[in-house]
Amino acid sequence: MELTSQQTLPVAQAQAWEALNDISLLKECIPGCDGITATGENLYEVLITAAIGPVKAKFKGKLQLENLQPPNSYTLRFEGQGGAAGHGKGTAEVRLESAGPRSTVLHYTAKATVGGKIAQLGSRLVDMAAQKMATEFFDTFNTKLQARYQVAPEPLPAVVAPAPQGLVAKLLAWLKRLFGG
């Protein structure tokens, strides 16, 4: 499986880097995360409950940060066991790019392999579950960043009502002429 995407974060690059290295914040944002514990320098034990199609399991894994280049990039190396549900391992390249004083683009490419029951589900279902988890993570992460750094969410674009058409338009025009409006 390979997942490549980018997300715009509503904070400066240094703030994004700080947040991506805040274990308590990440625990709150990772869907199904039951715990992240530091076990060494840039080494963590992670507990996650995940459902992929009909298979739901608790995964215990190791996460290691490598090639750290603060505040620009790092590599995540991970592996996990989910008992009878299966196992997975892979890497993710994460790169931050400043897009202004209050905007950072996070680029990532994750590559993973899975085995056991999870692998029997098929790559399409596994890919969809991974994409769903990524979407949920970034939705929560952006909300937490906005709260932490007191960033106002982007305003929604104004909706302009379409001009009346046909019979209604003619009726409105007639009423305006009739009443001098």
Automatic annotation (TrEMBL):
Stretch forming the signal peptide: none
SUPFAM superfamilies in the record: Bet v1-like
Annotated organism of origin: Pseudaquabacterium pictum
Entries under InterPro entries matching the protein: CO_DH_gsu, START-like_dom_sf
Protein name: Carbon monoxide dehydrogenase
Matching Pfam families: COXG
